[in-house]
Amino acid sequence: MNLTFALMVNMERSLLIKKQLSRFIEGNVQDIFYHHHRQVLKTKNREGGELKMLKKDDAQFHMQ
Predict the structure, then answer these.
(1) 53: left (phi over 0), alpha (psi -120 to 50) or beta
(2) What percent of the chain is predicted at pLDDT more than 90?
(3) Percent of the chain with pLDDT over 70
(4) Is the pLDDT of residue 1 over 80?
(5) What is the SS3 assignment for 1-64?
(6) For residues 6 and 16, is the Cβ–Cβ distance under 8 A?
(7) 6-42: burial string, b at 16+ Cβ within 10 Å, e else
(8) Would you state the torsion angle of the CA atoms of residues 61, 58, 28, 6, taken in this order, to the nearest 10 degrees?
(9) CB atoms closer than 10 angstroms to residue 46
């Protein structure tokens, strides 16, 4: 995780080591994210999108 992501989720970068990205993806959109991710890996076609993410205190924010 880079410094920008650490600032977005309101955590120190050192605390993000070995944390899975899925911990920060809002639960209702995790399946959509992983389906999209598999499609990108399969087709190599990168498309932009928006994702609901969670900060350390579980407050939601949108990331593009």
Answers:
(1) beta
(2) 56
(3) 100
(4) no
(5) CCHHHHHHCCCCHHHHCCCCHHHHECHHHHHHHHHHHHHHHHHCCCCCCCEEEECCCCCEEEEC
(6) yes
(7) beebebeeeebeeeeeeebbeeeeeeebeeeeeeeee
(8) 60
(9) 7
Q: Which two tokens stand for residue 51?
A: 């994702």
Tokens 């890996």, residue located: 41
Looking up tokens 């650490």 gives 6
Q: At 40, list the tokens.
A: 């990108």
pLDDT in tens, 6-29: 999 999 999 999 998 889 999 989
